[in-house]
Amino acid sequence: MSRKMYIDVNVIQSLPPSCVNRDDTGSPKTAYYGGVRRARVSSQSWKKAVRDSFRENFDGSDVAYRTMKIVSLVSSRITELDSSISEEDSLAKAKDVIEKAGITVATKTKKKSKGEADVGSDIPEAKALFFISSFQIDNLARLALGGEFSKKEAQEAINNGHGAEISLFGRMVADDPSLNVDAACQVAHAISTHRVDNEYDYYTAVDDRAPEDNAGAGMIGTIEFNSSTMYRYATIAVDSLQRNLGDKDTTVKVAKEFIHGFVMSMPTGKQNTFANHTMPYAVYIAVRGDRPVNLVEAFESPILPDRESGGYNEPSVKRMAKYESEIEGDFVSTPIAAWVIGQCPESMGTKASLSAALDGIEEMLAKEL
Predict the structure, then answer these.
(1) Residues 29-47, buried b or exposed e (16+ Cβ, 10 A)?
(2) pTM of the predicted model, to two decimals?
(3) Rounded to whole angstroms, how far apart are CA atoms 311 and 229?
(4) How far from the centroid of its chain's Cα atoms is residue 161's Cα?
(5) What's the count of helices (H) and strands (E) in the chain, helices before strands?
(6) CA distance 368 to 159
(7) What's the number of CA atoms in the CB half-sphere (13 Å) around residue 240?
(8) Quick one: how far is CA 300 from the chain centroid?
(9) Is 60 helix (H, G, I), strand (E, B) or coil?
(10) How far apart (Å, rounded) are the C-alpha atoms in residues 288 and 272?
């Protein structure tokens, strides 16, 4: 492409009582910002939700796996390509090609059930989670079946065909930095635009088969939760995405799917308990030519409830629009193009549905790339 381009996605979204992302104690994650406690959903949590949405919109060849079981994945693919190979030989070939690529593999003994005979097989696994695409699994399997190969060939196999997920979210390999992939997108921790205090839900569960004269509960407990209006932000470096993918049409497709996934996804923590399936209140998508801009500073001073509605959505959108207009000219250039969805003011960009905005982005990228 002829110039750098960044696509910023800003979302204002209200969450009712929920606990979509917990810390090690089971409490909803929080953060202090602007001197007050805010609700928080980690970037990793929302990236996982986006990755899960890809499985609905991409076929199996486009997805990736973050797992220690890469030897098993490559071994299974070897068996699919050549059914005459035994499981033992396919595991050995998979282990060999993965180690030749520079990934440390350890042998772990399969745990056996109580009373089971001591005939369990040893399962080779990577020593740490490794991000690998379906294309790369196939590359390694075919290389392993081809006979002798060098370390360079093994690394080429694992560095070709990153697919949508690795191209977007990157890969870090401590064993060998040559296998690293720079992420083409960044996702911020979502935080509430206002102060939040966690609350507790005390619950009881009745034993359906308890005797009639038993008035006690079968189980009691507490669940910590909060409710908030969140500011969410993500950005895509389009030139980096195209470099990782190596193809214009795929870059356009992946950028669209990421934006759609980020806007529409929701982390699944405690979802069966709270059913927090809300839609965004407002979305602002800006295509920038100078640098990405996170608008969270608009909320450094926490939002107070609107006097008329009593809510946080409307004042949060007004504050975001005001801050964006203030930084234009003083710090950053006016966006190349912008779209507003939902309750964003039209002064910020072209009013559109999410589908129409994605079509507009597709048309722009098709011309620019």
Answers:
(1) bbeebbeebbbbbbbebbb
(2) 0.91
(3) 9
(4) 19
(5) 11, 14
(6) 26
(7) 16
(8) 25
(9) helix
(10) 39
State the SS3 of 92-152: HHHHHHHHHCCCCEEEEECCCCCCCCCCCCEEEEECCCEEEEHHHHHHHHHHHHCCCCCHH
Measured distance CA(134)–CA(160) in Å, rounded: 11
Q: Which of 276, 281, 357, 361 is nearest to 315 (CA)?
A: 281
d(CA 182, CA 261): 20
196, amino acid identity? V
Q: How far apart are CA 44 and CA 190, in angstroms?
A: 10
* Residue at 42: amino acid letter: S
Which two structure tokens, joined as six digits, stand for 72? 């098993």
The answer to whether 38 touches 195, Cβ cutoff 8 Å, is yes
Rounded-to-10 torsion of CA 366, 355, 233, 295 = 90
| 279: three-class secondary structure by DSSP | coil
Q: How far apart are CA 166 and CA 179, in angstroms?
A: 11
**Residue-level pLDDT at 231:** 98
Helix (H) or strand (E) holding 222: strand 219-237
* C-alpha gyration radius of the chain: 25
pLDDT along the chain (369 residues), means of 10: 86 96 94 97 96 82 88 94 92 93 81 53 84 95 92 94 93 91 97 96 86 80 94 97 93 95 95 95 97 97 85 95 94 95 95 97 92
Q: In angstroms, what CA-CA distances link 152 with 143, 149, 193, 305?
A: 12, 8, 50, 60
339, β-bridge pairs:
285, 350
The upper half-sphere exposure of residue 309, i.e. CA atoms within 13 Å in the direction of its Cβ, equals 9
Report the C-alpha gap between 101 and 210 in whole angstroms: 60
Report CA 335 to chain centroid distance, whole Å. 25
CA 294-257-297 angle, to 5 degrees, is: 10
Cα–Cα distance measured from residue 300 to residue 33, given in angstroms and rounded to the nearest whole number: 6
> Is the separation of the CB atoms in 184 and 172 below 8 Å?
no
pLDDT at position 119 is 45
